[in-house]
Amino acid sequence: MLMGDTCTRGCRFCSVKTDRKPPPLDPHEPEHTAEALKWWGLGYVVLTSVDRDDLADGGAHHFAETISKIKSKAPGMLVEALTGDFGGDLEMVDLVAGSGLDVYAHNVETVEALTPMVRDRRAGFRQSLRVLERAKGAGMITKTSVMLGLGETEEQMWEMLRELRQINTDVVTFGQYMQPTKRHMKVHSYVTPAVFETWRQRALDMGFLYCASGPLVRSSYKAGEAFIENVIKKRKAGRDVTMVEDMGEVSKGASI
Hints:
The chain is an alpha/beta fold. The protein is 39% helix and 12% strand. It is globular.
């Protein structure tokens, strides 16, 4: 996680500490992060961060510098960035997408109707869709994640998925919302594994490239990363990829 441990937003599902003025960025973090990842020898890394509304660029340049340094030191490493919305500044999305990134992730978190109750007031469902659409326009594989158990209805879920497909979002994951502390939103319902599987199949039927869905699934999910890594390698080799073709890879990843 980049840019410190203090967020400028206060979403009702998240227990990360918040402050209007977090400590300044560490200017050496991009270099140190890239150097550490090089020595770890990872094939796939996910970068994320707190929201930094206190910064004019929302931290986009910091993200981009980190990605470019990783690619410089470890050209074969695949990089996924799970970013915030940069306050709706789509030029910052372009900056991160153009830094050598392989997968652009941004979470809508919940259905549109519940967004005002779940996310910070500065976030928005439409704004998140614009981020994903802009990243897709830059040629990225795009990914988003959704929490279930917040009170969403089936029709709201269908509408959300339709809108995500309209902007050609590639990957979606579903996980169970868990209340981190008594101060946060209560769990409305615990979704059964069968229902998670139903939504996984529905997402695939709608054309999503990949869907991980289950009570313990989170944004960064090993099986999903294995599948996406395979997709990227095949695209670079000029081959098309399908979900059916790569179920073996996903199954191996899921067992890790």
